[in-house]
Design brief:
Elements: E1 5-7, H1 10-22, E2 27-32, H2 38-50, E3 53-58, H3 78-88, E4 92-94, H4 98-101, H5 120-123, H6 127-142, E5 146-150, H7 154-166, E6 172-176, H8 196-219, H9 222-236, E7 240-248, E8 261-269, E9 272-280
Parallel strand pairs: 1-4, 2-3, 2-5, 3-4, 5-6
Antiparallel strand pairs: 7-8, 8-9
Helix pairs in contact: 6-7, 8-9
């Protein structure tokens, strides 16, 4: 497969996209932080199905990491990632530096309410301001017709949709189903931190959530089932559970029987934090 073009600056990125648009070509985008895996590839393939050209950004965004989090340890493997993009058929890799994205004197941020409330925000209050700011910048820099985000980061997907609605950003946001391994574990760059024993424990998370979601759909007892699911996750070997919550699938407000819902969870295996979510059957 041909190697994707590489743009390290916003100027070069815009020049390439402008040339495509002069040809009447549509543009899809997949924002990533690199350390690409099969889950990311599924997003790229969906973007390539929906658009004539695909841009993938690879940028470990410091604005969404707290000082105590794993910014310095976050896996970076650009050469391997570029090979992945080539194999997927991606046309352009945008690989800016932190100085390109946040130059000296940068002093702005984008904050989204609504679906950002609770869940991740209770434990990472900085996170969605960092996400919303970098996504807004990427959309202004690239001007894509559509962008694909994975449902694995379900709250993030809802926040990005809210962002585009509220600010009239003309980008269609497409949610892609979570890609899982043969045992049901959601693909994540942070899975690389886990040894075989850790992976065996991590693979229990999705099983527990699916069982709890089925029970919630049957008996409507979201409070009771989330308590039981939290206990089961801890008994499976997770050292800590940040949350297990049943939420409305569209607003991320409290779930009500008869509404589309999502059961979301976050837990810790050692220093590795994993998140997952499943649909609550209707």
């Amino acid at each position: 497969m041909p190697q994707p073009a590489i743009a390290e600056t916003v100027t070069d990125l815009r020049a390439t996209v402008r040339a495509w648009k002069r040809e009447g070509l549509s543009v899809g985008m997949v924002p990533t932080m690199g350390a690409l895996h099969e889950g990311h590839v599924s997003l790229m393939k969906l973007a390539l199905e929906k658009a004539d050209r695909c841009v993938v950004s690879i940028f470990v965004n410091p604005a969404q990491f707290a000082p105590t989090e794993d910014l310095d340890k976050y896996p970076r493997q650009l050469a391997k990632d570029l090979t992945c993009l080539a194999d997927a058929g991606v046309h352009l890799a945008f690989t800016p530096s932190a100085a390109e994205m946040y130059p000296a004197g940068f002093a702005s941020k984008v904050s989204v309410g609504g679906p950002s409330a609770g869940l991740e925000t209770d434990f990472r209050p900085h996170f969605f301001d960092g996400v919303a700011t970098v996504v807004t910048k990427l959309f202004l820099q690239t001007a894509p017709d559509l962008a694909v985000f994975g449902e694995k980061d379900y709250q993030q997907l809802c926040v990005v949709r809210q962002l585009c609605r509220d600010l009239d950003i003309p980008v269609e946001i497409i949610g892609a189903p979570t890609v899982r391994d043969a045992h049901g574990l959601a693909m994540s760059s942070r899975n690389a931190y886990l040894d075989e024993a850790g992976l065996a424990v991590a693979r229990q998370l999705n099983k527990i959530l699916r069982g709890a979601a089925a029970a919630i759909a049957k008996n409507g007892d979201a409070d009771g089932e989330t308590v039981r699911a939290r206990r089961a996750i801890q008994q499976a070997g997770f050292e800590g559970v940040d949350y297990v919550a049943a939420r409305d699938a569209l607003t991320l407000g409290e779930w009500q029987l008869g509404r589309e819902g999502r059961l979301l969870a976050a837990g810790w295996l050692g220093k590795t934090r994993l998140i997952d979510n499943v649909e609550i059957p209707t």
